[in-house]
Each structure stands twice: as C-alpha cells, then as structure tokens.
C-alpha cells in the first residue's frame, strides 16, 4: 500500500452490501492511507496551525485547510515586511552596505509574495532612508541623467561612506588639535 494513495486518488464509493471484493479492498486501502496520512500530517504541523484549522477526516480537505491558513499568513507576512521596509532608516554614516542589503532582502521576500517594486523606486526609496550627511550625495544623484541600478547605488554609497568617514576623521583630528593648542596656551 502506498501511504500517499489517499492524497493521489479520489475517495472510492463507500462499501455497501453490493460491493465487490475488489471494491472493498480498494476502499479499505484508501481508508487506511487516508487515516495514516491525516495522523502523520497532524503530528508534523505546529500546534498553532493545528489549533487554527478545523478537524478534518479527509487528508485532501486537511491539506486544503492548511493551504488556506498559509494564504492568510502570506498576507500578514507581506504587511509586516512592508512596515519593516518603510520604517528602515540608516541612522549613522557607517553600515550603508548592510542597510542596502537588508532593504534588498526585504524586497526579494516581498517579490516571492507577489508584491513587486521597480528597481527605480527602490533606488529612490533607499536614497531617502540615508542620513543627512548623505545630502550632497543625494543631490548629485538627482542631478545626474543616468539612473543607477541597485548594485551601482550600493557601490556609490560605499564610496560615499568611505569619504564621509575620512572627512569625519579629519574633523575629529582638527578638534583634537585645537583643544590641545588651547590647553597649552592656557597653561602658559
């Protein structure tokens, strides 16, 4: 007997007084496969899913109910991902590569859920999530005629991050040197 027989084949007619031995055997085979399949599936699905679906004695009906449960879960997941996507902001100069990769990952997950965004929209959206230090960089992008791909945006942002880090390091050195000079002249 194939354990998945009840999944692959329709339920045969119920056994009656006029059923042939072959029909009885076929029904018993289907019934055993159905019962074992239902028990097996119920042991393998999580308690949350098991509690949220009606009790089914037919394996096909059980599988259909589980499928329907995941359709609503996909909608919930899409909403959660969209909220996460729209709330992401880069708060520091560092980590722009990881920030863009995280946004790109969310978009890929949304695409699997049939929620798609154009690459152009994504580039503009990512630019709007960058901190104020990236202001001149954003202006530079907006004044260029060419549109960037996500990969080009990532490359340019990483370069800009490096430039901003160097600039930040230089300004920190200037502040440190000025404080050091003030301290010496006050001591004299």
UniProtKB/TrEMBL annotation:
It comes from the Eukaryota. Pfam families: Retrotran_gag_2 (PF14223). This is Retrovirus-related Pol polyprotein from transposon TNT 1-94. It comes from Vitis vinifera (Grape). The lineage of its organism: Eukaryota, Viridiplantae, Streptophyta, Embryophyta, Tracheophyta.
